[in-house]
Each structure stands twice: as C-alpha cells, then as structure tokens.
Amino acid sequence: MSAPHANVAVLAIALVVSALVALAFVWSGAWAYAALAQATGHTETTVLLADPHGDHVVETRADLGLLLDWHRGWVAYVTGASADPPRRFGSGPVFTADEYAHMADVRNVFAGAKLAGLLALAVAGFRLYRARRERRALRLVRDAALVAAGIVALVGAALALAFEPLFLLFHEAFFPQGNFLFDPATSNLLRLYPAWYWEGVTAAVAGSFEVLALVSAGVAQIALRRDSTTYTRAA
Fold first, then answer.
1. How far apart are the first and last CA of the chain?
2. By CB atoms within 10 Å of each CB, which of 7, 11, 12, 157 scores lowest?
3. Distance CA 148, CA 12 (A)
4. Number of H helices and number of E strands within the chain?
5. Residues 6+ apart with CB under 8 A from 40
6. Per-residue pLDDT of the chain in tens (235 residues, 90 and over written 9)
7. Which helix (H) or strand (E) holds 80?
8. What is d(CA 175, CA 169) in angstroms, rounded to the nearest whole number?
9. Total domain count for the chain?
C-alpha cells in the first residue's frame, strides 16, 4: 500500500471509530428513545414489579414517561455521568442482580469506547495537521470520508440482512462472560430495551454517520474545485 493510500486508510478508520463513538453517545439520549418509541408505536409496555401488598411480582403497565425515567438512569450510569444505576421503584427492585451485573459490564465497555474514540480523534487530528502542512488536507478529507462512508455502508448492509446474529456476535465478543442472556418472559431490562430500540438506534447511528461523511466529502470537493479555479501560476 502506497503512503497516500495508507494515509487515507488510517484517517478513514480513525473517522469511523471516533464518529461512531460520538454518535452512539448522541443517540443514547432520552429524546432518541422517545422518538423511536413513538415512531414504532411502542410507547408503553408491561414490566414485572413487586406487589406492594405481598411478596410476589405482578405485571404492571409502564408508560413512556416511566420508561424514559429508567432509560435516563441507565444512560447516566453506563456513560459515567452517574455512579449509581436505577435501583428501586415502589416496593422493590426493578431489575435483577444479573441485569445490574451486565450493565456494569456495559459501563466498562462505554469507558473503553470513550478512550478509543479519543485516541482515534487524536490520530485523525495528527493526520490532518500533517496533511495541511503539505497542502493536501482537503483531498485527504474527501478520500477518507468516502472510504469511511463505504465501510459503514457495508457494515450497515450486513446488519440489515442479519441483525440478530451479528448483534449476538457483538455481545459474545464484548461480554464473553455470557451474562447478557436473559429470559424475555421475566426480564425488565429486555422489556425496556427490546429489538425495536436496538435496530432503530443502530440505523440512526449508521445513517447519521453516512450523512456526515458524505457532507464532509462534498464540502472538501467543493473547496478543492474552488482552489483549482482561483489558482494562478506564478510568473
């Protein structure tokens, strides 16, 4: 691989990592959960909660407001904004010990993702700084953004064709201890985060990345054309 091609590949990978991490944080917000719930018609569900008058659990309706409260608590916890996860509701805990253990692992993965995103951003900044000094930054941005868009498009196509097995493969890779497997009939965590949520968030992150990458490539190309038309050869 030639040096220019290597620079494009390195910057493309750095852009994919840093931007996807940033977009994952953006789309983890309560506004995104609410938008996806309303778009798919899942604005309420049922959860299992302790009976305040006994020692057994009862199936209870949870509206979107309550789901958003739990979602905010979990997002604050896994992103490091809060030291404690959502614990109790009414007379008892909402989630099981295994679910809390899994979300603690998710918190660790988010911490690793933040570090990876910052390192990728530093790599991208260094590559662009060096390219700017050599007066080839615009071309590098254009080419790397197009390559990055292609990478994410290929991954997105694979996810569209086989989301469930790839989603499972992701969990097996990042959570090899296997504590992400819960019974759909009894898990409140799965009721809070069902398939429609993960499919929607994944599509939103990938779609947002594609838009940003293509816009960046387009802006760089316009700037390159402008430079070429305004350049005058020295006498």
1. 37
2. 157
3. 5
4. 8, 4
5. 196, 200
6. 566 788 999 999 999 999 999 999 999 999 999 999 999 999 999 998 876 665 667 888 999 999 999 999 999 999 999 999 887 665 567 898 899 999 999 999 999 999 999 999 999 999 999 998 888 899 999 999 999 999 999 999 999 999 999 999 999 999 988 788 899 888 999 999 999 999 999 999 999 999 999 999 999 999 998 877 665 554 4
7. none
8. 10
9. 1
Structure-block tokens of residue 61: 């309706």
Q: What is the C-alpha separation between 71 and 60, in angstroms, rounded?
A: 17
In a domain, 235, yes or no: no
CB 154 within 8 A of CB 148: no
The pair of structure tokens assigned to 224 is 């390159």
Question: Each residue of 169-211: pLDDT tens digit?
Answer: 999 999 988 788 899 888 999 999 999 999 999 999 999 999 9
Task: Determine the structural domain holding residue 98 and report its residue range.
Answer: 3-230
Tokens of 4: 């220019």
Amino acid occupying residue 30: A
Alpha-carbon separation of residue 127 from 44, 116, 145, 149, 187 (angstroms): 47, 16, 13, 18, 46
- Residue 105 and residue 177 in contact, taking contact as beta carbons nearer than 8 Å: yes
Q: Please state the pTM of the whole predicted model.
A: 0.90
| Strands annotated E in the chain | 44-50, 57-63, 88-89, 92-93
Is residue 43, in this structure, part of any structural domain at all?
yes
The C-alpha atoms of residue 70 and residue 42 are separated, in whole angstroms, by: 15
